[in-house]
Amino acid sequence: MEPDKYKTIKLSARGIYKEKGSRFIAFAFPVVNPEEIKPIVDKLRKEYHDARHHCFAYMIGKERLIWRTNDDGEPSGTAGRQILSQINSSGLTNILIVVSRYFGGTLLGVRGLINAYRTAAADAINNAEIVERTLNEYYEVKYPFASMNDVIKIIKEEDIGQSDQSYELECSMVLKFRHSAREKILNRLSLIEGLNYRYIESK
């Protein structure tokens, strides 16, 4: 895989595992930042309020450095860590998996719980469409109107996305381009007279 590409899921998906009357319903969601996690988990807690546990794990970022697990009252290491292991084994990122458990009256033991949460999470991943995405950089550029042609030339030649354009005495726009092209594109932009750029985000 190219250095600025990563694998994630295209849309939300669901999986399920049943054992001894207990049901483990797994929900997988594509996410791009940690701020998305709590609203999703809270919504599931409300919608499936009769479930005993809502355990989850997430992984965010191409470098896969932002992650967290939560056992939500299950024995330590039996739930969130097992969900994360399935995310890792699939090589995915920018994903949240929540497993809601309905207790069936029979204790499953540590091994049983580990298997249940791991299997439910794996089923959700198997039911999801896995896609390859590129890590993109977003920059705001400002430049004098006289430099418009030079900017447009680079945008066309480097296949750069653009949004939030403003064409006045001082023009501005937001550029989107692949992370792997960042150095080349910024070097070209820096040669344009009067142009300034500001980093916004990577995603």
Structure, explained:
This protein has helices at residues 37-47, 80-89, 109-126, 148-157, 182-190, and strands at residues 5-9, 13-19, 22-30, 53-60, 66-70, 95-102, 130-134, 136-144, 161-166, 170-178, 196-202. The mean pLDDT is 95. The chain has five helices and eleven strands, in the order E-E-E-H-E-E-H-E-H-E-E-H-E-E-H-E. It has two domains: 5-133, 2-Layer Sandwich (Ribosomal Protein S5, domain 2), CATH 3.30.230.30; 135-202, Alpha-Beta Plaits (2-Layer Sandwich), CATH 3.30.70.240. It has 203 residues and is of the alpha+beta class. The strands form three sheets. A five-stranded antiparallel beta sheet has the order 2-3-6-4-5, with helices on both faces. Strands 9-10-8-11 form a four-stranded antiparallel beta sheet, covered by helices on one side. 30% of the residues are buried.
- What would you report as the Rg, rounded to the nearest angstrom? 22 Å
Count the helices. How many?
5
Percent range for β-strand residues: 35-45%
CATH architectural label of the largest domain:
2-Layer Sandwich
Helix percentage: 25-40%
CATH H-tier superfamily of the largest domain: Impact, N-terminal domain
Structural class: alpha+beta
Shape estimate: elongated
Order of secondary-structure elements: EEEHEEHEHEEHEEHE
